[in-house]
Please model this.
Amino acid sequence: MALTDISPIVSIIALAVSLFTLWFTVMRRGTIRCTHPSFIAFRYDFVGTKVPLAKIFLRALLVSTAKRGQVVESLFLRVREGSRSSEFSFWGHGDKELVRGSGLFVPETGVVTNHHFNPLDTETLFLFSGGTYTLELVAKVIGREQLVSLWRLDLEMPPGVFGKTIARETAVFFSWSPERRRYIGTVENRSGAIHALSDPQG
Model:
């Protein structure tokens, strides 16, 4: 094959590589992904509302699959237990200082922080009674009409932790075990006492 025959092929390949690079780095929209939260906690806030305000908070890494990153307009939890269903869409985030969630840029390298969620209904007590809780983390991404479901999981809440009288210092923590590939639950309080939940799976 003559050199003059090879040159057009090389040019076409170079053009294809350039177009792919342009698409991958600039034009590709990508999506948002989220790691397994390292922990998920259930507790209550006492903020002057008529009833204690249920809170679920967690720590996880959000990452964009696109080079240019993504902007999360809002983040919320869908919470289901038995016949109950609630939207925990009062969102705050931060490690040391908690700020109201009103947009978060998520780069390709990711952003890790604590995320706090409360229900918008502050008049009705959402009691964390015993049972299986299904949590779904959902994001509204700027530029996308449809919501993005980041993960969905089930957690077993032990009965009797929260009753009619809710202790301010009590919280139920579920910590992720990479080896067991599931969450291990404990009941904790601010005095430092920790009580492991029963674990039928060993």
About this structure: Residues 19-28 have pLDDT under 50 and may be disordered. The helical segments are 3-27. The chain is about 10% helix and 45% strand.
